[in-house]
Amino acid sequence: MKNELTIENFNEISEHEQQDINGGFLPFVISVALIAIGKIIDDWDNFKNGLTGQPEEKN
């Protein structure tokens, strides 16, 4: 039986192809921003208190 999964049968993909597969840098930045916005919305009262210099509200 011939083994098709040998090192000789693999080729490196170009940087452009890697970015197409992985999504590049912009999707990462967008996802981090969406996570941060979600955390702020979940704890809006404490976010607002932090902006006005008031103490944190314990839940």
Textual characterization of the structure:
The mean pLDDT is 86. With 59 residues, this protein is an all-alpha fold. It has helices spanning 15-22, 26-42, 44-52.
What about the largest sheet? none
Number of strands: 0
Tally of helical segments: 3
Rg estimate, integer Å: 23 Å
Q: Could you tell me the mean pLDDT?
A: 86
Indicate the overall shape.
rod-shaped
Question: Could you write a compact summary of the structure shown?
Answer:
With 59 residues, this protein is mainly alpha-helical.
Main attributes of the structure:
59 residues, 3 helices, 58% helix, 0% strand, rod-shaped
Question: How does the SSE layout of this entry go?
Answer:
Layout: H1 15-22, H2 26-42, H3 44-52
